[in-house]
Amino acid sequence: MQITVSKAASLKPKPDPHHLGFGTIFTDHMFNMDYAPDKGWHNPRIEPYGPIAMEPSTMVLHYGQAVFEGLKAYRNPSGGVQLFRPQANFKRMNHSCHLLCIPEYDEGMALECLKELLRVEQDWVPDAPGTSLYIRPTIIATDPFLGVRASHTYRFFIILSPVGAYYAAGFNPVKIWVTRSHVRAVRGGVGEAKTPGNYAASLYAGEMAHKHGYTQVLWLDGVEQKYVEEVGAMNIFFVIDGEVITPELNGSILPGITRDSVLALCRSWGWKTTERKISIDEVMDAHRSGKLQEIFGSGTAAVISPVGELKYGEEIISVTEGKVGPIAMKLYQALTDIQYGRAPDPMGWVEPV
C-alpha cells in the first residue's frame, strides 16, 4: 500500500531535551490506517497530529476492544535514528489482536509505516543523555454500536512523544508493595495481551501502594495468590544464590520484549537463568537465608528498574542495601548501550531508520 503524507501547516517548537518528562509532549504528525471488512487494512497515511473524531457510541469507549504497544527510537552517536527490536513489538501486537478479536495486520508493512513517520519526525528524536522518542502504536474498535460483539471497523494509529527518564528519580532503586487483596489478571483471560483494560485493572492497587509510600505493586497470581507475576507494568526478576529467576509465561503475564532481551543477555554471558514459578514465600525465605541478592523490573519505559525495598504483609525487606545491584547495573548498561548505538549489537536487535 502507498503511504500518503500530509504535512502540518505549522510546526510546534521543540522542547528542551534536558527537561523532558514522560508522555506529556507529542510530535507534529501521526500515522493513521483504517480497517473495513470489504477493504481490509487500507488508507495508510501520515497526517498532522490531532483529535480522532468518533461518535459517543463508538465501541471502544464501551467495551474496551483495543490493543497497543510501546517502543522507542534512539539517537545514536553518529546522529542517526534507530529502533530496538521493533519487529518483536509488532509481532506481540498481532498476538494481542488475535486475543481481542481484532484483524491482524502485515507486520513488515507496519514497520515501514513507522519508519516513514520517524523520517518525517526525525528532528523530534532528542539527543540529550537518557532521552528517546517514545512510540505508541494503537488499534481501537470504531463501530458506532452498543452491543457486545467484535467491531467490524478499526483505526490503527501511531503517536510519538519525546521522553526523558520514566522515573523522576532516575536510575535508582524503587520500593514495591505486595498486594494480597487485588489481582491484575488470571490465566485464560487477556493478561498476556497489551490491552487497556489490564492497566485499568491495576490502578486501584497502584494508588494503594502510593498511599503506603511505595512506587509499584508486586502482583501475585490470580488463582492461589501465591506466585509472583509482574511488578507494576513490568516483568520482574530475582537473583537468588547466583541464579537469575523470572516468572514463567503462563498466559496471564505479558511477554515483555525487554524481559526477553534480559534473558538473552544473561544466557550469552553464561549466567544461570531460569523461567519458572516462584512464590512470594520463596522470595522472603531467600532474603532470610541471605541468598536474595537482587530484585529488578524490566520494561520498555524504564528499561531496568532496580528494587531496593519490598513489603509483604507486615514484613519489610531491604535489597542490596537500597542501592543498585551489580547485575541490574550491568544489564541496564548493556541494553542502553545497544539501544543508543554506543556498543556493538551482537544480537541483531537494532533496526536503523
From TrEMBL:
It is an enzyme of class 2 (transferase). The modification N6-(pyridoxal phosphate)lysine is found at K194. One of its GO terms (biological process) is L-leucine biosynthetic process. One of its GO terms (molecular function) is branched-chain-amino-acid transaminase activity. Its cofactor is pyridoxal 5'-phosphate. Pfam families: Aminotran_4. It catalyses: L-valine + 2-oxoglutarate = 3-methyl-2-oxobutanoate + L-glutamate; L-leucine + 2-oxoglutarate = 4-methyl-2-oxopentanoate + L-glutamate; L-isoleucine + 2-oxoglutarate = (S)-3-methyl-2-oxopentanoate + L-glutamate. Keywords: Amino-acid biosynthesis, Aminotransferase, Branched-chain amino acid biosynthesis, Pyridoxal phosphate, Transferase. Its EC number is 2.6.1.42. Pathway: Amino-acid biosynthesis; L-valine biosynthesis; L-valine from pyruvate: step 4/4; Amino-acid biosynthesis; L-isoleucine biosynthesis; L-isoleucine from 2-oxobutanoate: step 4/4; Amino-acid biosynthesis; L-leucine biosynthesis; L-leucine from 3-methyl-2-oxobutanoate: step 4/4. It comes from the Bacteria. The keyword Amino-acid biosynthesis applies. PROSITE patterns: AA_TRANSFER_CLASS_4. NCBIfam families: ilvE_II, PRK13357.1. Acts on leucine, isoleucine and valine. Belongs to the class-IV pyridoxal-phosphate-dependent aminotransferase family. This is Branched-chain-amino-acid aminotransferase. It comes from Desulfatirhabdium butyrativorans.
